[in-house]
Design a protein that fits this description.
Elements (H helix, E strand, L loop, with lengths): L17 H9 E2 L12 E4 L3 E4 L3 H10 L11 E4 L9 H17 L2 E3 L6 H7 L8 E4 L13 E4 L2 H10 L2 E4 L3 E7 L8 H11 L9 E5 L8 H9 L1 H4 L3 E3 L4 H13 L9 H9 L12 E6 L6 E3 L7 E3 H5 L7 E4 L7 H11 L9 E4 L4 H10 L1 H7 L3 E2 L20 E4 L15 E4 L2 H10 L5 H4 L12 E4 L27 E9 L6 H4 L12 H7 L8 H4 L5 E4 L11 H8 L4 E4 L4 H9 L3 E4 L1 H10 L8 E11 L4 E6 L5 E6 L5 H8 L3 H10 L1
C-alpha cells in the first residue's frame, strides 16, 4: 500500500483481476452488490478441498468440534501420497483409519499408490479452470497451471470446510508476471520458474497471488504451466494462475478422449460451459506489482545448493564439475508423462553412471501406465533407474534413496531446503527432467549436449524488470467516514485502537514469538504464555509492553512453524492486533483462526524506521504513536499521541461480517461449534 492522504486524493476504483473474479464466484455471505478486492476478508466455499496423509489429524479435529457427518462429501477428496513406502503398523493403521472415514462419509478416496494428490485433483477434474480449490498442502498452487485458483489451507481450515463447507480468506495483493518472448530450444518450464525464483529473490511476490500473462503464453504447454504454478510456492506466493486460453481448451478436449465418459467433472458439458463462460481480468484491473521476464533471454538453470533462491545457469555450473551421488525424477512438480518422456529421450542408449543412484516415480499410476505404454518408462529402467511407487517419497525425505552426509543430489522436485531430502550435511540442486537425466548419465551436474561430448549452450543475461504501480483508491473520502460502510455486528468493536509498540526486525519467527520448548506442552496456563511471549526475540518485551498495545513489526512476521501458540501467546497478553509490513501466511491463518487480528501496512513500518533510523537500537520500543482502525470505513489512522497530528491515514481491507462472527466466537473452531448448535 502506498502512503497517501485519502481525504484529499480521489480516483476511480479499478476493475477486477482474474483472482478477484474467481473469489467473487466462491465468496459467500457478501452484502448485495459487493465487489471483492485485494485486502478484503471474505468467507469462501471452495469447489473442492483435498487432504492427504494429514486427513486423519483433520478428521480428529473435525470430530473434536462435535460433528458426525461432513457438510458436503462431494466437496472433499482424500488421497494417500506422502509416506506410501512406509509399511509400519502405525502408518498402515493411519491409512486404514483414513480409508474407513472416507467410506463412512462417502468421500472420494484414492489409496496409496494411486498417485500424488495434486496430480489426482487435476487428472480427475476436481481442480478445474476458474474454480477455487484448496488443499491442506502448500503445493495446491499447482492448480493454477490449468487456470484454477489453488491455494493452501491449514488443518483447522480443512476441518471447518468438512463441517460447514466454508472457511475464510483474505484476498492477497495480486502481482502480474509477464512472460515475454519465446522459450529457446532446450529450455523448459522448470527453467522458467527456477530463473524467476533466482532473479526475483527479495520477497517481491511474498504472500501475493500471481497471474501469468505474455504475448506467446499460448506456446507454453500445460505441463510447463503446472510446473511453474507448482513452484510459485517456493517463490513465496499464495497462488499462481495461468489464463484460460485456446491451449488449455484444447488440452481439455484431448482429456475427453482419455477419461471414461460420462465423467462427473470433465465431460462435454463442463468443457463447453468453460468455453461459453470463460472470464479474464478486466482491462483496467489493478496489480500491486508488474514483473516481466524475457523468456528468450533464458538458458537452462539449476537451483541451489540448498536454496531455491540461488539460481545458476547450467553453463556456469557445469564448469564446476560437481560429481553427484543421486538423481531424482519424482514429485508433483516434474513427474508427468512429458517429463518422463523428456528424461527418457536424454538417457536412451546410455547407462546411469557408476556410483550414481537415479530414482524415478510417476506423479500417478495413470501417468506410469502411459509412460510404460509409450516405452519411456522402460527406457529409464534399462538405463539403470530405480523405480519407486507413485507418490512423494524422497522429495520430502521419506522412504528409499535419501541423501546421506556429504552427498550431492540433483532433483526435478520443488524444494531443496537443507536436510529436506536427507542429511543436513548433503547438497541438493533442482533442475529440469532433461538435466537430471543427463547428470545421472554424466555422473556430474551437466546437460544433454555433454553426453555426446558437445559443449553446454552459453548462458544469456536474464532480462527482467519490476514495476510497482500507484494504487487506485475509492472515489469516496476516507476522512469523512461517509463511504458505503462496513456492517459491524453486535459484539464486535466499531474501532480498534492502541499505542504502537515497535518490534523492529524482519522475519521474526514463531520460535521468537513463542519458544519451541513450550510448544508441545499442552498444559501451559495463559499467564505463562503471556509471560514467555516474544522472550526469544527480546527478553525485555514483557517489561516494555502492556495490555491493549498494538505490535508493529517488519516483513514476514511469524515465519517458521505452524504452531498456533504464536498467535495465542500474543492474545494472552491482551493484545488484539498486530500490524506488520507482511506476515508469514501460516501465521496469518492461525491468527484469524484464534481471533487475533492482523493488518499489513508496509508504509507504517517504513515510516517508523525512518523516524528512528538515527536512534539507539531497541528491539522493543514504545513509539508514542496511536493507531485507530475504523472497521466501519475500513480506514487506519495513526496519530502522534492520542489526539495528536495525523502521521498516516489509509484504507485497508474490509472486515466482512462473516469474519467478524469468527472473531466474536473466539476463533474458527468456536464459530464452527456455534454452527452445529444453530
Amino acid at each position: 500500500m502506498s502512503r497517501r492522504n485519502f481525504s484529499t486524493t480521489v480516483c476511480k476504483l479499478a476493475g477486477q483481476n482474474l483472482t478477484e473474479k474467481i473469489v467473487q464466484r466462491y465468496a459467500v455471505g457478501l452484502p448485495k452488490g459487493k465487489i471483492v478486492k485485494s485486502g478484503d476478508y471474505v468467507s469462501i466455499k471452495p469447489a473442492h478441498c483435498m487432504s492427504h496423509d494429514n486427513s486423519w489429524p483433520v478428521a480428529l479435529k473435525f470430530k473434536g468440534l462435535g460433528y458426525k457427518n461432513v457438510k458436503d462429501n462431494r466437496q472433499i477428496v482424500n488421497t494417500l501420497d506422502h509416506d506410501v513406502q512406509n509399511k509400519s503398523e502405525k502408518n498402515l493403521e493411519k491409512y486404514h483409519n483414513i480409508e474407513n472415514f472416507a467410506k463412512e462419509q462417502g468421500i472420494d478416496f484414492y489409496p496409496a499408490g494411486r498417485g500424488i494428490g495434486h496430480q489426482i485433483m487435476i487428472e480427475e477434474g476436481y481442480a478445474f479452470p476458474l474454480n477455487l480449490t484448496v488443499a491442506s498442502d502448500s503445493h495446491s498452487n499447482t492448480y493454477g497451471g490449468i487456470g484454477a485458483l489453488g491455494t493452501p489451507i491449514v488443518r483447522t481450515d480443512a476441518a471447518s470446510i468438512w463441517a460447514t463447507g466454508q472457511t475464510w480468506w483474505q484476498i492477497p495483493p495480486v502481482a502480474k508476471v509477464e512472460l515475454k518472448g519465446r522459450l529457446p530450444k532446450g529450455v523448459s518450464g522448470k527453467d522458467v520458474i527456477v530463473a524467476l525464483c533466482g532473479a526475483f529473490n527479495n520477497d517481491e511476490v511474498l504472500n501475493h497471488a500471481i497471474e501469468f500473462t505474455g504475448d506467446h503464453l499460448d506456446e507454453l504447454s500445460i505441463d510447463y504451466r503446472l510446473t511453474i504454478a507448482n513452484m510459485t510456492t517456493e517463490w513465496g506466493a499464495l497462488s499462481g494462475v495461468f489464463p484460460v486460453d485456446e491451449t488449455l481448451i484444447n488440452w481439455y478436449k484431448e482429456r475427453l478422449q482419455v477419461l471414461p465418459q460420462p465423467h462427473p467433472r470433465v465431460n462435454e458439458q463442463t468443457v463447453q460451459n468453460l468455453i461459453d463462460n470463460s472470464v479474464s481480468a478486466d482491462s483496467d484491473a489493478y496489480y500491486a506489482k508488474h514483473l516481466t521476464l524475457d523468456l528468450s533471454s533464458l538458458s537452462p538453470y539449476v537451483s541451489g545448493p540448498n536454496s531455491v533462491k540461488i539460481s545458476t545457469s547450467l553453463a556456469d555450473l557445469s564448469k564446476q564439475n560437481l560429481k553427484i551421488n543421486k538423481a531424482y525424477l519424482v514429485s508433483c512438480t516434474n513427474s508427468r508423462l512429458s517429463d518422463i518422456k523428456a528424461a527418457a529421450e536424454v538417457i536412451k542408449g546410455h547407462k546411469v553412471a557408476p556410483g550414481v543412484e537415479f530414482y524415478i516415480a510417476a506423479a500417478s499410476s495413470n501417468v506410469q501406465k502411459d509412460a510404460e505404454h509409450d516405452g519411456a518408462w522402460n527406457a529409464l529402467l534399462e538405463a539403470g533407474a530405480i523405480p519407486l511407487p507413485a507418490g512423494c517419497g524422497p522429495c520430502i525425505g521419506l522412504g528409499a534413496g535419501l541423501l546421506k552426509e556429504g552427498e550431492i543430489g540433483i532433483s526435478a522436485t520443488n524444494r531443496n531446503f537443507k536436510g529436506r531430502m536427507g542429511s543436513k550435511d548433503a547438497l541438493a540442486y533442482l533442475a529440469s527432467p532433461e538435466l537430471v537425466a543427463a547428470s545421472a548419465v554424466l555422473g556430474k551436474i551437466g546437460g544433454p549436449e555433454e553426453i555426446g561430448g558437445g559443449p553446454v549452450h552459453g548462458a544469456h543475461g536474464i532480462v527482467k524488470s519490476i514495476d510497482i504501480p500507484e494504487k487506485p483508491v475509492s472515489d469516496e473520502s476516507v476522512s469523512s467516514g461517509e463511504t458505503a460502510g462496513v456492517e459491524v455486528l453486535e459484539g464486535f468493536p466499531r474501532s480498534i485502537e492502541g499505542e504502537l509498540v515497535l518490534c523492529d526486525a524482519d522475519n521474526i519467527n514463531t520460535d521468537g514469538i513463542y519458544p519451541g520448548k513450550y510448544t508441545y506442552q499442552d498444559d501451559v496456563p495463559r499467564e505463562k504464555m503471556a509471560q514467555v511471549c516474544m522472550e526469544n526475540y527480546d527478553s525485555e518485551f514483557g517489561a516494555k509492553t502492556k495490555a491493549g498495545d498494538i505490535i508493529v513489526s517488519g516483513y514476514n512476521f511469524g515465519t517458521g512453524s505452524s504452531r498456533e501458540q504464536a498467535a495465542t501467546a500474543i492474545l494472552a497478553r491482551d493484545m488484539k492486533l498486530v500490524v506488520a509490513g507482511s506476515f508469514g501466511n501460516i501465521f496469518s491463518r492461525n491468527s484469524i483462526n484464534n481471533a487475533l487480528l492482523t493488518l499489513e501496512i508496509p508504509d507504517l513500518i517504513n515510516t517508523l524506521r525512518e523516524k528512528y533510523k538515527d536512534a539507539p537500537k531497541e528491539l522493543t520500543r514504545r513509539t508514542g504513536w496511536f493507531l485507530k482502525w475504523d472497521v466501519t470505513s475500513a480506514t487506519v489512522t495513526v496519530r502522534d499521541g492520542p489526539e495528536g497530528d495525523i502521521v498516516l491515514q489509509q484504507k485497508v481491507g474490509e472486515l466482512g461480517t462473516n469474519l467478524q462472527e469468527i472473531i466474536i466466537k473466539g476463533g474458527l473452531e468456536g464459530w464452527v461449534r456455534a454452527q452445529l448448535n444453530e
